[in-house]
Design brief:
alpha+beta; about 25% strand; globular
């Protein structure tokens, strides 16, 4: 599939929000995605790239630098989603290649990490095919109420 990988523009927000359903997230409307994307303009280095096929967004990826005290940090892929009709056609591979290029150009290289739901066995095979290796770890999550300390 001959797709163009390019930085997102705000006009992509509605299509990006709909593609979240491929990851079992609730879809986000254009206004919600625009608010989220605008928030990204502040803070650590990050990038959002879309896969554009014939003027239609068929996938996207969000990568950001993670800084920590226990290591030199890494780049984290927070979202990688491809329209199910376009999966298996090289779109995800091209998006991750762009991530690798960004990590070298912006961060000087280093580790790239990404999470994947335990039920996404086909995605796991895809990542392993691209030389990503499984880590032995769990993610724990808690939702906390906003409080003033």
């Amino acid at each position: 599939m001959d797709v163009l990988i390019r930085p997102y523009v705000m006009d992509d927000a509605a299509a990006m929000g709909q593609l979240l359903t491929a990851l079992d997230y609730a879809p986000a409307d254009a206004a919600t995605m625009q608010r989220r994307l605008a928030r990204l303009a502040q803070g650590l280095p990050h990038a959002v790239f879309v896969a554009d096929w014939q003027g239609r967004v068929v996938g996207w990826v969000h990568v950001a630098q993670v800084c920590q005290t226990a290591s030199d940090g890494y780049a984290e892929v927070y979202v990688l989603t491809v329209d199910p009709a376009c999966q298996g056609k090289g779109v995800g591979r091209k998006l991750l290649a762009q991530v690798e290029h960004w990590v070298v150009a912006q961060l000087g290289g280093g580790r790239i990490r990404l999470g994947s739901g335990v039920h996404r066995t086909e995605a796991h095979k895809f990542y392993e095919h691209l030389d990503y290796s499984k880590r032995r770890s769990f993610v724990f999550e808690k939702h906390s109420a906003a409080t003033v300390i």
